[in-house]
Amino acid sequence: MEYTENTYNRLLEELFARHPSVQTAGFTAGAYKPGLDAMRRFDASLGHPAEQIRTIHVAGTNGKGSVSSMLAAALAATGLRVGLYTSPHLVDFRERVKLIGPDGWSLVPKEYVFRFLTERDLDGLSFFEVTTGLAFRWFADEQVDIAVIEVGLGGRLDSTNILTPELAVVTSIGLDHCALLGGTRAAIAGEKAGIFKPGVPALCGQRDAETAPVFEAKAAGTPCPLFFAEDFDTESFALDLGGPCQAENLRTALAALELLGIDADASVREAVAHTAARTGLRGRWERLQEDPEVICDIGHNPPALEINFRRLQQDGRPLVFVYGIMADKDLDAIRPMMPGGARWFLVAPHGDRALPAAQLAARMQGLDCTVCSSVQDGVRQALDAAKETPDCIVYIGGSNFVVAEAIGMFDQ
Length: 412
What we know:
Number of strands: 14
CATH superfamily of the largest domain: Mur-like, catalytic domain
Largest sheet: 8 strands, mixed
Number of helices: 17
CATH architecture of the largest domain: 3-Layer(aba) Sandwich
């Protein structure tokens, strides 16, 4: 089969159909396969690219995509060619696998993806194992100076954990994916700390009474040196990444640079300040439109949404929401956080995991809710409502999928 735009698109459709992703299929046997044996075999069949690249490994409940992107932008500003592997993608599958240079970013070429998917035996692999192998092989072929690798889920059993990095980072710990990772923050911290490696420095973004003992015990048993970002003397500055947690993410990124021996000089700080522009990161308190102001954010678990909702309320302006959620999320924990006095346009993005909008509405009694037929319908109705609500904020979120479909509308 020869490469054309049509054959490439068909091949991607087959990839999603034959290798279901957690994004679309949830944590089914085909989409989520904990354990590293299959990934190690796949890496071996690819020529062991995981052993050919220098890496930084980043885990965490929230903030790991932002911290990964900050680190990639900073490292590129020193003249390095940097690989960046993150998930999920919002618009283009190739957003997951990027090359970051001093002057900007580029995606893995479609032709490379096409050859990789047609020339490899992918039977029995999960979607994330396939994309992880693709990233590692491309970074090795490109001879990147270093690659920043974001964990997909958890850490200990994540496909990316076949790496031995130069630095392991855990950004934050919150209650998410509890059925798989544990029902307490301490249990989840143990899974995230599974990326610690003997002799490799480990950096944690948070120190608190529940998780710090877990990190300390894991570091002692590995063994590896352990650091906490709050112990570093870092300088905060404005970022083009929005969102209420970015100050903490910045502190973690700057502490990581110090551990790597990178001087955060003016050029590095400038690059980090413009992380979104330098790396193409989207959906982090991103302003999609100014009049009315439309903000989207991929925060979808209780810790992230609590912060986002609080920030919106503190702004003091009228609020209009376009909101959808996956059926496996903890709506009982999220519901009490939802601002009253706002207008809610409820949606269900494409995919079987989404909670139907009507079912969502039934669990949001007491709020001013409108059930919408699609994300697009919800956005249109919200923008119409904004015309009748001067100086309001339209917030789009609750799910990566909601944000992805909305971005596609505003990008047209």
